[in-house]
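Sample entry as discussed:
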Amino acid sequence: MPKMNFTRRTAVGLGLAVALLPAAVRADTLDTIKQRGKILIAIDVSHPPYGMLDDKAKETGSDVETANLLAKDLGVPLEIVQVSGANRVPFLLSGKADIVIASFSITEERKKVVDYSRPYGVIPVVIAAPTGEKIAQANDLDGKIIAVARGTTADIELTKVLKPVSGARIVRYEDEATTNTAVATGQQNIFAAALSTANEVRDANPAKKLEVKMTMAAYPMAIGLRKKDDALRDWVDNWVAANLKNGKLNEIYKKYFKSDLPAEMME
């Protein structure tokens, strides 16, 4: 029997996890939320400006505001389930969260195991390094070490970009905060991340003279749901459409990213 590659093996394993979920989790999640009286939303609070803790250790950020708006419109309190980039999908599939709002970009691999709402934002993913590093294409990373948070879109794209570059090495940290600390303390000089994260690390560490060297991809961002959760997905899709039309989602995006959503997304 031919060996199954890691990506396919992961997808099959997560698919099996869905099949083995308790009946209560596989039931109509929208009804479950209403009966429970609250919605459980997975958010990564270590990934500013999407999710972070303020000086009073209270969750804030664009994902938090989006989740609060959704819960308010659904008419139930919000309970934030804190996750990392790596465990967003497992928490969703295991029923620890009803939906994911955690800088969750749409990828073909994730589509194999989860559903997505209509997109409500965009996430460019980039490689950043000190100004003295000459990096304009993948081959320029030969012989270099690049840091990234495990399981993020930046990790996915970096893996693709470096596939033909045998001399490059990826160091994967467990979350965005740890990755950013590694760069700030000089453990790593080159890193891959969402554009917003790269800009935040640059601004927080001016002595490092960091700058974006190349954009690897730009992903639409959406709300993650379990497959076959049709009633909840339909409600969320309608909610996204309504709040794009009334401008509320654009207000949140502009507040944290200093620009409007793409015009085609608003239509």
